[in-house]
Amino acid sequence: MKILTTFLFTVFAVANFCCQNTEILILSGKIKFTDIPSKITNAVTLSTLNELNQRLNQSGTLILRNVELNLGDIREKDTLFVFAIEKLKLENTKIITNGNSLEVYANKIEFDNKSSIQSFNQYFVKNGLNGNEQNINGTSGDNGDNGGLVKFFILDKIESSIILNLNGQNGGNAGSGMPGKNGIKGSDGTNARNGALGSCGRGPGRGSDGTNGTNGGNAGNSGNGGNGGFLFVNYINKNPSTENLFNITSEKGLAGEAGVIGIGGRGGDGGEGGSNAGNCSRLSAERGRGKKGVDGADGVKGIDGKSGEPGKLTVQKYTL
Question: What is the mean pLDDT of residues 233-262?
């Protein structure tokens, strides 16, 4: 089951709580973002404080318990995901942004010490392939994705420390070029042969030329590392908390390693000239080794990827 346990219940409170939604939604197990009600995930337009309060109060409390929630896929163009909730509480839960953007609008946020927001499950991307018989050139490593953008908009307070890992992905290693093949040695020339009555029947043959070596393959490009993610914590119409509430890492992704060029194949040696015979000594000038084949060219080095830039935490007052 995608949702192992789902509880949705409304606490009927006394009249003093008539203006606040005390609905509590508990989701657990393997869930998708679309399993969360749209009243929580619809986009927010910040216009007035009263309108934002009404929106949050309508959403009640969301508890994610024993959840691993992936926000979309890793892609070049980021997608925005939104939580707009009276209170967001995470219990042994991991939200994985996959480099996408996340905005959380809440009166209160609470994470236990086993919960976190992180940019990726895997911080390494696809490496390039080495050259082979079908394609002697190495292919390029993929670029690492950026750690994304996370924004908190807090009306009341953050009730616990928050763990975030917004590291960028490392770039993929470049594939190496395939080495060239050595040329084949030329065949030896035929030997001289004496003829009748002191004549020369056949002079010594010249060795044939060696074949050329083949070119080495080019190395692929190494992938760029992604930038570390950015966290903006916005306290709406109030001064930020002075507590150190955020345990955040936002390291740059490293560039992938360069590939090795393929060394060109060595040209084949020329074949040996045939041996002389007594009656054919005057033809010795025709003897000779064949020419060495041409060495293959070395492959070309790929373009080195660049490491990303580290991310940043900004905690500030946001006036609405």
Answer: 94
